[in-house]
Amino acid sequence: MGLAGIRDGLRRFAADYAHLPLYHRIASAAADDELVAAILTHARPGQARAVLLLAAIHDLMLSRPDLPAARWYSSVVGAPNVPTTGDPWPEIRAAVLDHREQLEQVVATRNTQTNEVNRAAYLAPLLADVAADLPDRDLVLVELGCSAGLLLALDRYAVQLTDPSGRTVTYGDPASPVRCAGRLTADSAPLGSAQLPRVRAHRGIDADPPSLRDPSAVRWLEACLWPDQPARVERFAAAARLVADDPPVVVTGDLVDGLPQLLKDATDGLDPEQLHVVVFSSWALTYVERARRPELVTTMAEFASRSGIPVSWATAEPAGAAPGMPLVGGWSADDSGTVLGVRAWREGAERPPLVWGTCHPHGEWIRRWQPARPAHPTRSPPDGPADSG
Ligand SMILES: C[S@@+](CC[C@H](N)C(=O)[O-])C[C@H]1O[C@@H](n2cnc3c(N)ncnc32)[C@H](O)[C@@H]1O
């Protein structure tokens, strides 16, 4: 992309995120600053996006908290210590130009990547409900497109959901240093049991999994979050610290091609009579060509039939992204957020796919449908990666 396109992109970002003071200021100033905007000309084809430059600058501040500009970043100095008056741009511009070559190298080699810990706010009740179908069996949790694997550790977080009357239910470990939160909408059906059965194995697959034991990889994941949203950054940092001690097994590979081996490895040596394999995916399937996605269904059906182990697939994806799980038309407007669906294979046959509910892409709100509704395709959204920011 040429410099003019890059500057337009920065301007668009600034307009879209006028409510985020720091990132709005950096993006609008960088759009008018040829030297700073030009750093993005080093990005790989298709990657010259405002968020990549913002992440590269954030990464610099996280690695160099001694820079004067770092005081504008809540992730470095803590939200209460960020100045509430003054202009951050002169100090940030100086730091950027002093480290230009380093930033060019970062934008040339990195992609923005997410592992949104608060997605546990919808995954915990969804997975608890899926597991409640077979309460006497241990879970084998398998995540497709798991990034660093932070969501595979959701049973180690305190996930608090509040209903419209103010009553709070906690999933996972109430004493956990990682606090996730969501609210049930006024029209949500009540949640089921808050108990997650014992998890015997946590396995994930990702095309490019950052290692939680590599400080620069963890810093990059943190840098891709926005310092104007300090709660997200703090939650991420707490989860990365907690899970690094005992990280889930995450393999590098394509989630479609790698699923057969992943299922085999996850269950090898365990008693099939005691297991319930629960596969889940959240905001990952849009990265996979639509025509390849049904192969996941075939793999799960074949595994369930061959092994005799019940398999469930919980999906948290944009409407229409999960095979067999498009959004049913006629629901309210905010249903276009994330659709929570379940497919399940028991004793050689598949049950009808169900839409369990809908939610905000980062778990801020959750609406459970009761009873869960059969999924009837009504529309097919366009293909291509979608990320929720
Ligand atoms: C938007 S992130 C979501 C990560 C995580 N599921 C979450 O909700 O925080 C999408 C992830 O899917 C991974 N991914 C994309 N295409 C993939 C593929 N074909 N096979 C495996 N992983 C893939 C990316 O590397 C990235 O980590």
Number of strands: 12
Helical residue percent?
25-40%
What are the segments in which pLDDT stays under 50 over at least 5 consecutive residues? 329-333, 377-382
Bound molecules: S-adenosylmethionine
Report the average pLDDT across residues.
Answer: 92
Tell me about the largest β-sheet: 12 strands, mixed
Radius of gyration: 22 Å
Q: Treating each run of at least 4 consecutive H or I residues as one helix, how many helices?
A: 12
* Dominant shape: globular
Strand content: 15-25%
Query: How many separate domains make up the residues?
Result: 2
Could you please describe the fold and organization of this structure?
The protein has 389 residues and is α/β, with parallel strands linked by helices. The chain folds into two domains: 3-109; 117-211 and 247-374. The protein is built from twelve helices and twelve strands. It has helices spanning 3-16, 21-31, 34-37, 50-63, 74-77, 89-98, 100-109, 120-132, 215-223, 230-244, 255-267, 294-307; strands at residues 138-144, 158-162, 168-172, 179-184, 199-206, 249-252, 275-282, 311-317, 338-346, 349-350, 354-359, 365-374. Strands 1, 2, 3, 4, 5, 6, 7, 8, 9, 10, 11 and 12 form a twelve-stranded mixed beta sheet that branches. It is globular. The structure holds S-adenosylmethionine.
